[in-house]
From TrEMBL:
Residues 74-239 form the Integrase catalytic domain. Keywords: Plasmid. The keyword Cytoplasm does not apply. This is Transposase. Signal peptide: none annotated. InterPro entries: HTH-like_dom, Integrase_cat-core, RNaseH-like_sf, RNaseH_sf, Transpos_IS3, Transposase_IS3/IS150/IS904. One of its GO terms (biological process) is DNA integration. Pfam families: HTH_21, rve, rve_2. It comes from Vibrio cholerae O139. One of its GO terms (molecular function) is nucleic acid binding.
Length: 243
């Protein structure tokens, strides 16, 4: 039973879950197991974790649009939901050509609450991701949305969407990738834990796979910063505590 469950959890993570993560997942399911035994069983079962690779930033910053001040200031752990969101864009390769993924994350829980894919990196892409997040969360006034200075975020259309929903923009300093480090880590997890060594023939298959990962990330993947809970579990616990 233990062997089968460990193998299933490892396969569900697409060979990205290490010994410590597997131990935490198994303990959540009631197994009494330590890190040394997990490492031993991983070796016995031939479970080898994927190696990470580096990726470059893709958003375009050469424009004449006005930029917002950095209101977030790397405060990545807001006390409640819908207090601070963050977004960014990354690229994904398919046989049919590039795709671009825009996401919106609630920094309180690290949950991906909005996302959109397109073969072009446009303002429409970021607006669709933001609109999904707005529809899901229905935020009240006072919310901050943090992004880089890419034209997809500084455009008048995107800024109008923010202000019309009483969302205050915040933007990273020029060339300061650490100002949006949490979203960058999500992209790294997507590419290294899910898409590494997976070749997609079509953009449609990539879209389906990205959707699968976002569901896995939100509901299953454990986060050390969330006391070893998934984003959805963390939100649920916080709601119960506040009730």
């Amino acid at each position: 039973m233990l062997y089968r469950r460990m193998k299933r959890l490892f396969d569900d993570s697409r060979s990205s879950a290490g010994a410590r993560t597997l131990m935490k997942l198994l303990r959540k399911e009631g197994f009494k197991i330590g890190i040394c035994r997990v490492k031993s069983l991983m070796k016995k079962l031939g479970l080898v974790v994927k190696q990470r690779v580096a990726y470059k930033v893709t958003t375009m910053r050469k424009h004449s649009h006005a930029v917002a001040d950095n209101l977030l200031k790397r405060q990545f752990n807001p006390a409640r939901a819908n207090q601070a969101w963050a977004g960014d864009i990354t690229y994904l390769r398919t046989h049919q050509g590039w795709m671009y993924l825009a996401v919106v994350m609630d920094l309180h829980s690290r949950r991906i609450i909005g996302w959109a894919l397109s073969k072009r990196m446009t303002v429409d892409l970021t607006m669709r991701a933001m609109q999904m997040a707005i529809n899901l969360r229905q935020p009240k006034a006072g919310l901050i949305f943090h992004s880089d200075r890419g034209s997809q975020y500084t455009s008048k259309r995107f800024q109008s969407l923010l202000w019309s929903n009483r969302i205050t923009p915040s933007m990273s300093g020029c060339g300061a990738c650490l100002d949006n480090a949490v979203v960058e880590r999500f992209f790294g997890s997507l590419k290294n834990e899910w898409l590494l060594n997976v070749y997609h023939l079509t953009r449609e298959s990539m879209k389906t796979d990205v959707e699968k990962y976002i569901k896995y990330y939100n509901s299953v993947r454990l986060h050390t910063s969330l006391n070893d809970m998934s984003p959805i579990e963390f939100e649920s616990v916080r709601k119960k505590c506040a009730a």
